[in-house]
Amino acid sequence: RLLHLGEVHPAAMVGLEQHLGGRIRALVREGSAAGIERIARIFDRLDARAGTLFLAALESAEPGTGDKVRSLMFTFDDLGTLDAAGMQTLLAAADRATLVIGLKGAKETTSAAFFANMTQRAGDLLREEIAALGPIRRSEVDAARAELVGLARQLIGRGEIHAGSASDEDELVE
Q1: What Å distances lie between residue 92 and 97, 115, 120, 161, CA to CA?
Q2: How far, in Å, are 118, 131, 159, 162, 165 from residue 171 at the CA level?
Q3: Of 56, 87, 100, nearest to 151 (Cα)?
Q4: Confidence of residue 124 (pLDDT cuts 50, 70, 90)
Q5: Which is it for the CA torsion 26, 32, 34, 36, positive or negative?
Q6: Is the pLDDT at 154 greater than 60, yes or no?
Q7: pLDDT confidence of 37, banded at 50, 70, 90?
Q8: What one-character-per-residue DSSP string does 121-173 give?
Q9: 46 in helix, strand or coil?
Q10: Are 63 and 129 in contact (CB under 8 A)?
Q11: What gap in Å lies between CA 63 and CA 92, rounded to an integer?
């Protein structure tokens, strides 16, 4: 097709220019905050190493932007900040094998949040499964963690769990 491509019809160019102009105007109306939000969603999908590298590159290219993106990201370690009910809902919805792989080598504070929302026996069994797993590839751990974060996002989107802790602005009213 490229060999036989001639000049582009002027009406097609006008239509393309109008479409692109509309998209650009929409992006400008949304402002830079929406762009930072999009970048945070993209970075959420990256593995930990790539995310760190890209955040550092972003920070050197646009000082201050890396911190803004980082503040909007939702990572595996952020699951440790879920309230007890949210964590229990996540645990009930999560696949056991994914949970075992995801908790392999997790930060102590993050794994403690998971274990605190289990019975002693369930926690002991899970610790045994993690220990019996042996060495595992980082890519498998990152994939399992991404799956757990994705599940948490779905549950948050459906309103079944709430991310973060309650603030003064979001206090309970009786």
Answers
A1: 13, 13, 16, 12
A2: 26, 40, 17, 13, 10
A3: 87
A4: very high
A5: positive
A6: yes
A7: confident
A8: HHHHHHHHHHHHH-S--HHHHHHHHHHHHHHHHHHHHTTSS--S---GGG---
A9: coil
A10: no
A11: 41
Residue 159 has pLDDT above 60, yes or no: yes
Distances (CA, A) of 64 to 3, 57, 138, 158: 47, 12, 30, 32
Kindly compute the dihedral angle of the four CA atoms of residues 24, 26, 30, 35, in this order, to the nearest 10 degrees: -40
pLDDT band at residue 147 under the 50/70/90 scheme: very high
d(CA 19, CA 45): 29
Q: Distance of alpha carbon 171 from its chain centroid, rounded?
A: 26
Percent of the chain residues past pLDDT 90, beyond the cut: 38
Q: Using alpha carbons, select from 48, 52, 43, 51 the residue that is nearest to residue 72.
A: 43
Contacts of 78 (CB under 8 A, 6+ apart): 149, 163, 164
Decide if 65 contacts 59 (C-beta within 8 A).
Answer: yes
Terminal Cα-to-Cα distance of the chain (whole angstroms) = 69
